[in-house]
C-alpha cells in the first residue's frame, strides 16, 4: 500500500466519495418511496401480488452495465449523465424492495388490524398508524439490503465514465496500481458500512419499540 499516494490524493478520494453518495442516496430514497406502496398493494391484493413481484424482479435480468448504457436511450440524456445511473439503481432498488415490503406488511398481525378497524380507524389512517409502524422492522431490513446493493453497483457506472469510487478501480487497473484499486474497494466497503449504521440508528430513533423488543 502506497501511503504517500493516498495522502497526496486524499482530496480526490473525498471528491469521488461525495460523487458516489450523490448517486447512491437519491436512488436508495426513491426506491424506498416507490417500492413501499407497491409492496403494500401486493400485500393488499393477493391476486396481483405475483404479477407485481415477478414484474419488478425481472429488472434484475438486465445486467447493470447494460442497464446504464440503455438509460440514455430511454431518458434522452447524455451517456455520461449521472442521472442514468441514478434511475437504473432506483429500478434495481425497487426490484429488491418490493418483495421485502410485501413480506413486511404480511407480517403485521391481522388481529391488530381488526382492533384498529373496530376502534374506528379509517383504512388510510390504519395504514399510516398501524400497518407502517408494525411493518417498520421488515422495511428497515429491506432498505438495508437495497443500500448495500446500491453502494456496490454505483461503482459500475465508472465503466461508462460516471465518476465515483469505482473510478479508482478503473484507473488502478489501467495503471496496474494496486494501491488505487484497494483505495476504491476499501472506500466502497466503508461507505456501505457507514450507510448501514446510519440506517440502523435511524431505525432505532423512528422505531424505539422495535429496539426494546429486540
Key attributes of the depicted protein:
mainly alpha, 10 helices, elongated, about 210 residues, single chain, MetI-like fold, transmembrane
Describe this structure in words.
There is one protein chain. The protein is an all-alpha fold and 214 residues long. The protein is built from ten helices and no strands. It has one domain (3-213): MetI-like (MetI-like fold). 82% of the residues lie in helices and 0% in strands. It has helices spanning 3-8, 10-44, 46-57, 64-75, 82-106, 110-118, 123-154, 166-175, 178-206, 208-213.
Poorly predicted runs: none
Shape: elongated
Mean pLDDT: 89
The CATH H-level homologous superfamily = MetI-like
- Whole-number count of domains: 1
The proportion of strand residues reads under 5%
User: What percent of the residues sit in helical stretches (DSSP H or I)?
Assistant: over 70%
Number of helical segments with 4 or more residues: 10
Summarize the helix and strand pattern as letters.
Answer: HHHHHHHHHH
Structural class estimated from helices and strands: mainly alpha
CATH fold-level assignment: MetI-like fold
Question: What is the radius of gyration computed over CA atoms, rounded to a whole number of angstroms?
Answer: 20 Å
CATH architecture: Orthogonal Bundle
Q: Please outline the major beta sheet.
A: none
Instruction: Give the CATH level 1 class.
Output: Mainly Alpha
Tell me the total number of β-strands: 0
- N-to-C span: 41 Å
Keywords: Membrane, Transmembrane, Transmembrane helix, Transport
Membrane topology: Multi-pass membrane protein
Family: Belongs to the binding-protein-dependent transport system permease family.
Protein name: Choline transport system permease protein OpuBB
Amino acid at each position: 500500500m502506497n501511503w504517500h499516494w493516498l495522502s497526496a490524493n486524499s482530496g480526490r478520494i473525498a471528491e469521488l466519495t461525495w460523487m458516489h453518495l450523490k448517486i447512491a442516496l437519491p436512488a436508495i430514497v426513491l426506491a424506498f418511496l416507490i417500492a413501499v406502496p407497491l409492496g403494500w398493494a401486493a400485500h393488499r391484493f393477493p391476486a396481483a401480488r405475483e404479477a407485481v413481484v415477478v414484474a419488478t424482479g425481472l429488472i434484475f435480468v438486465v445486467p447493470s452495465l447494460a442497464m446504464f448504457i440503455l438509460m440514455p436511450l430511454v431518458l434522452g440524456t447524455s451517456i455520461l449523465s449521472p442521472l442514468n445511473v441514478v434511475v437504473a439503481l432506483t429500478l434495481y432498488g425497487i426490484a429488491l424492495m418490493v418483495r421485502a415490503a410485501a413480506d413486511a406488511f404480511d407480517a403485521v398481525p391481522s388481529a391488530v388490524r381488526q382492533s384498529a378497524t373496530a376502534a374506528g380507524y379509517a383504512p388510510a389512517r390504519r395504514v399510516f398508524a398501524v400497518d407502517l409502524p408494525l411493518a417498520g422492522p421488515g422495511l428497515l431490513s429491506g432498505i438495508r439490503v437495497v443500500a448495500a446493493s446500491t453502494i456496490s453497483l454505483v461503482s459500475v457506472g465508472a465503466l461508462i465514465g460516471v465518476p465515483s469510487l469505482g473510478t479508482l478501480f478503473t484507473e488502478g487497473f489501467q495503471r496496474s496500481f494496486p494501491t488505487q484499486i484497494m483505495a476504491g474497494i476499501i472506500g466502497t466497503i466503508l461507505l456501505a458500512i457507514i450507510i448501514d449504521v446510519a440506517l440502523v440508528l435511524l431505525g432505532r430513533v423512528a422505531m424505539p419499540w422495535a429496539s426494546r423488543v429486540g
